[in-house]
Amino acid sequence: MKARSLWRFSVSTTAEAEEAVCELLAGVFGSGAAGHHNTRTGRTMVSVFCSRASEVSPARRREVVAGLARVRASGLALGSGRIRVKRLPAEDWATSWKRHFKPWSPGPALLVRPSWSRRRPAAGQAVMTLDPGLSFGTGQHPTTRFCLRQVTLLRKAGQGQSILDIGSGSGILSIGAALLGYSPVRAFDFDPEAVRIARANARFNKVSRRLAIEQADLTRQPVRSPERYDIVCANLIADLLIAERRRILNRVKPGGSLVVAGILVAQFPAVVEAFGREGWVLVRGRTEGEWRSGLFRAQG
């Protein structure tokens, strides 16, 4: 069968706003969005690919423009926000994605793979299936990879452990946690479209009854919570992590762990300092490209 042309819808942005723009485009187009940072030029481009010209409609363009205005208003350095639409030569859609999305394991207990992959899990290894056409975010971003690795490494076989995912996006962490046996598993995100897609991902992986994903605004939650968790993941921008650190920390059980990500390298020391003032120390960290993530625990 003859391959059809593709249309690439791209937004020029910054490394700081890359993840937010990925989520915006994926929500508007209902398809996977991918970011690329050129280390030579310092430019970051986020793109989605459409199989029909009608999908790149003026209405969607207007929706993206409005969403970019919200990203800029949130305080993120958006960059130019220039939109480009380009028709690409005929190429098989699936083959294009297969080159970029490979199976990977955050740990021996979990395998993340697209539905077309023939890679078999190891004995006792749970499988999370994610396709770019269903989710925005397929675990490829360095911050998501770090968080999922920690969720896998912190799992204690045969023991009850609970987890809260703040800023859950497409639900990758909470789905992985449910597959690994965490319970209860709770997640929330400010964006209703993110919640919709996360729930779809949970159904796709047959774990929707083993977790709860809700729409909620962290800044409007009570500072203290009666519910606390063994692990709290917060994949949020540095300013929000610092401003809302008490709300976040008050949801971690005594002796529990906090995993933070989505932080630019230059902003990470301020996060470490802010959490240090609350008595929490960095026990594990990782830098990938311009991103830095960390695992924190209370001192003593």
Query: How are helices and strands ordered from N to C?
Result: EHEEHEHEEEHEHEHEEHHEHEE
| Tally of helical runs | 9
Radius of gyration over C-alpha positions, nearest whole angstrom: 19 Å
Biggest sheet: strand arrangement = 10-9-8-11-12-14-13
CATH topology call of the largest domain: Rossmann fold
Query: Which segments are poorly predicted (pLDDT under 50) over 5 or more consecutive residues?
Result: none
Helix content: 25-40%
Structural class: alpha/beta
Q: What is the CATH C level class of the largest domain, in words? A: Alpha Beta
For the secondary structure, the number of strands is 14
> What spatial form do the alpha-carbon principal axes imply?
globular
Q: Tell me the name of the CATH homologous superfamily of the largest domain.
A: Vaccinia Virus protein VP39
- Give the end-to-end Cα distance, rounded to a whole number of Å: 64 Å
Strand content: 25-35%
Number of separate domains: 2
Average predicted confidence as pLDDT: 85
Reported for the largest beta sheet, the result is: 7 strands, mixed
CATH architecture of the largest domain: 3-Layer(aba) Sandwich
